Amino acid sequence: MDLRAAFASISFPTKRLLAMADRWAKESTPSTSTHVAQPRYQRKQQPSLAERLGEADVQTLIHRYRAGTTAPKLAEYSGRGLSTVKRLLRARGVRLSP
């Protein structure tokens, strides 16, 4: 078998790959149809802690912290994590003590 004959026949997997490449090329070219791609599902953003607690509860947490309640006690009181409570206080402009 000479070299030309060895490369003259294309195997079935190669034919499938070439057909897929042709199909992709046709799909990627801009067409005149009015088909609009549907947006993918996007997970809804969860409301912030301040939105979930409500303004009155947030003000209560701030008031209690400024009155001397520690951040861990506030976290326990609100049923939230310590870092979450600290982040909420910082976002409202409260300076945290070390």
From TrEMBL:
Superkingdom field? Bacteria
Residue numbers spanned by region Disordered: 28-52
What's the protein here called?
A: Uncharacterized protein
Q: Which organism is it from?
A: Pseudonocardia xishanensis
Lineage summary: Bacteria, Bacillati, Actinomycetota, Actinomycetes, Pseudonocardiales
